[in-house]
Amino acid sequence: MTVGRRVLFAAVCAVAVASVYAAQPVLGQIGSDLGMADGQLGWIVAAGQLGYLVGLATLVPLGDLLDRRRLIAGHLVLAGAGAALAATATRAWVLLVGLAVAGLFAVVVQTTVAYAAALSTPEERGRTLGAVTSGVVLGILGARVAAGALAAAWGWRGVYVVLSVLLATLAWLLLRTLPPDARAERVTYRQVLASLRGLFRERLFVSRGLIAFFAFASFSALWGGLALPLAAGPWRLDTAEIGLFGLAGLVGALGAARAGRWADAGFASRVTGGALALLAVSWLAVGQASWSLWLVVIGVVVLDFAVQAVHVSNQHLLTTAHPDRTSSVVGGYMLFYSLGSALGATTTTAAFATAGWPGSSALGATFAVAALAVWATDRRVRPFTDAAGRTRPTPSCRPSAG
């Protein structure tokens, strides 16, 4: 795994995931152009998210069946086609179809993560996952800033034209630079899906999935609701100023790439516990949005660092435990991620309407504490049963690392 390959994998993840989140800062422009009512704008974001959720269950497992180099390239091209359809849409339903297609094939992110893990030696897998996950974070948070700037210059359609071109270019680069991914063993799609279902009977998979579920619910509680107190008094920030808080989150999240090295050293379990504790504490600072923006910035940096450190360590443990089916295990794990993100986004606004930002902050902290409780409970139970009913030790870290 060379530095160049890590950069390419990170770029694929950043651009692909950006196709799901790019609509958020330009919803007003899209609605005005296509004549959509404010109450309908939520479907623009939901279309990509729903497509992504379907892709996690149906497309990502294909990585354990097919040549991943060709699969990733094909999915990039199809995601680009969805973005191009969105860019040329003159009716709302055409736009939604295009965004759903782009979201469906944006799950190339998880196939890429799995492929990067499979190409890495056990000693460098954590470092690789840390670098590639940084690309995902760059796409999620950077898409908001980049889309706003592109839309200001070329309109919202320009955002999707650029995405389409970038996705096609990355597909070409990937085919030119990566080796073929030949498969020695022939398995069927039915067998791959059965293997995915079997993961839900494994203690390691379920516990790490639940940790991700609550951690990303906490993450989404922040980003799904932070604009509300910042747009209100006493700050009354505009959308461009609110978007800059994404840069603070980016700083914290990129710093979490270091967690991969700690996982390689055998400290994945301790990284998870420490990061979850930081996640809970970060809400003490984030909750002060009514009187201190600096505390909010500090809290955002710590929160994003903590969530991404948990994410890297989770994927390290799962791909190490299942090196022969990294695509299935990453795709299944990301189902927890998506459901947790949806829970956080939908509940934080309800909490804000009822109890203001202190209510949203208490909700986010509760999710963090729940994730920490799952981690602590799982550490008390050493043996776990795999999908075949065998009992074996948890591969969470070396014995000396606890």
Largest sheet: 2 strands, antiparallel
Task: Tell how many strands the DSSP assignment holds.
Answer: 2
| Secondary structural class | mainly alpha
- Contiguous helical run count: 17
Helix and strand element order: HHHHHHHHHHHHHHHHHEE
Strand order of the largest sheet: 1-2
DSSP strand content: under 5%
Q: Would you identify the regions where 5 or more consecutive residues have pLDDT less than 50?
A: 383-402
Tell me, briefly, the overall form. Answer: globular
Helix content: over 70%
Tell me the radius of gyration.
Answer: 20 Å
Mean pLDDT: 83
Give the terminus-to-terminus CA distance. 29 Å
Descriptive notes:
- The chain has 17 helices and two strands.
- It has 402 residues and is an all-alpha fold.
- A two-stranded antiparallel ribbon has the order 1-2.
- The longest helix has 55 residues, at 326-380.
- The radius of gyration is 20 Å and the shape is globular.
How are the SSEs ordered, and which strands pair?
Layout: H1 3-21, H2 27-34, H3 42-58, H4 68-87, H5 92-105, H6 108-119, H7 125-154, H8 156-177, H9 189-199, H10 203-223, H11 227-231, H12 239-243, H13 245-255, H14 258-264, H15 268-286, H16 293-321, H17 326-380, E1 383-385, E2 391-393
Antiparallel strand pairs: 1-2
Features:
globular, 402 residues, 76% helix, disordered C terminus, mainly alpha, two-stranded antiparallel sheet, single chain, 17 helices
In short:
With 402 residues, the protein is mainly alpha-helical.
